[in-house]
Design a protein that fits this description.
about 375 residues; Rossmann fold
Length: about 375
């Protein structure tokens, strides 16, 4: 690590500019740190969801290290889990390990156009914002809560990209077609589809109504079919534009760990996700020769409104964490970062793959102690 750079930056540390220099030096040294400089949001140094306690203390109380400048860095850093509270970190403030998606000069999706379905809350909201931060113009799809969708649009505008909110039920073919027509009219084309819209209608199997079964399959599975088909037609019409992307188009199917893990009391939901897996793989196989990349993301337990009951009490969270080897619940931003990568040319050779973002939930954690 480049500790000489860090030591130099610590000189003159009592002004915001120097604090920023410290942050940049720590980053240059290869140390991941997240702290608040106390200045405007655009000036905050938030580089990683992992906070290193001694680095934060070094910035807050540099004199405590003045007698042993060559020895402080040999201490083993204490890595703290995402969302942990660190008293005193961040120049006298109490700071949480940041889950915010950082602004960056690196725009891997610059000049690209995207549609994200179910983008007014939860995972879809974070994915839409992340695509905007990565340089893409975004259609923010929603069915209800227009104000929330407009809030996502505002966040993307702040990142310097275009965005529009569009109301459409993804299980209705005419509404899906209207949405894609508007996207092409507004942006000229579509390069990326994140088929994220989904819902649950949980019920014991013997009591599950046909309406609950159909509703979940229509939105979660048929909705992905209709959106992926509309996107494919636009990709084939336009073809590859090498100055924009190596691929003619990218489709990301949002699935779930329950494409692999059976889920009693949720037969309709698990069935829809198992269907998404083979839909994704089948069309990936068919469309790859056309330079259309289709992949999936399978989130595990993510802190979203759809599963509040699973984590909103200490007892519920404790029980949930027994299923997650990594020891924390996921955040929508964890999934959003994966989506940006799959949508970018950095993953150009990744085709027909499901990326599990689950903290190890699909590793059968019950067998970690020999079952």
């Amino acid at each position: 690590m480049k500790f000489n750079t860090l030591s130099s930056a610590l000189k003159g540390k009592n002004n915001p500019t120097s604090k920023q220099r410290v942050a940049n030096a720590i980053r240059t040294a290869g140390i991941a740190i997240s702290f608040d400089t106390g200045s405007a949001p655009a000036d905050r140094a938030r580089y990683s969801p992992t906070l290193i306690r001694w680095s934060a203390n070094l910035v807050r109380e540099p004199r405590s290290h003045s007698r042993s400048r060559t020895a402080w860095w040999r201490k083993k850093p204490e890595l703290l889990p995402l969302n942990s509270v660190v008293p005193g970190a961040g120049f006298g403030r109490q700071t949480r390990c940041s889950s915010e998606l950082p602004m960056s000069d690196h725009k891997p999706l610059a000049r690209q156009k995207a549609i994200v379905t179910g983008a007014n809350s939860g995972i879809g909201e974070s994915v839409a914002i992340a695509l905007g931060l990565a340089g893409a113009d975004v259609v923010v799809n929603y069915v209800e809560n227009e104000d929330a969708a407009n809030g996502v649009v505002d966040r993307i505008h702040q990142a310097g990209c275009k965005a529009v909110a569009h109301r459409a039920d993804v299980s209705a073919q005419d509404q899906v077609e209207d949405m894609f027509e508007r996207a092409v009219r507004e942006f000229g084309t579509i390069d990326i589809l994140v088929a994220n819209a989904g819902l649950q209608r949980d019920c014991a199997f013997a009591e599950m109504s046909l309406e609950k079964w159909n509703k979940v399959l229509e939105v979660n599975l048929t909705g992905q079919f209709l959106c992926a088909q509309a996107a494919t037609r636009e990709f084939l019409r336009r073809g590859v534009v090498p100055s924009v992307s190596c691929a003619a188009g990218k489709i990301i199917c949002m699935s779930s760990v329950h494409q692999e893990i059976p889920w009693a009391g949720h037969a309709n939901y698990a069935t829809s996700k198992g269907g998404i897996k083979l839909l994704m793989e089948s069309i990936a196989q068919e469309l790859a020769p056309k330079r259309i990349r289709v992949n999936g993301i399978a989130p595990g337990a993510i802190r979203t409104p759809i599963n509040t009951a699973a984590w909103n009490t200490p007892e519920a969270l404790k029980n949930l964490l027994t299923l997650i080897p990594y020891g924390r619940i996921g955040l929508p931003e964890d999934v959003a970062r994966a989506a940006v990568w799959l949508a970018s040319d950095e993953s150009d050779y990744v085709v027909g793959t499901t990326l599990f973002v689950d903290g190890g939930m699909t590793l059968f954690p019950g067998f970690a102690t020999n079952g």
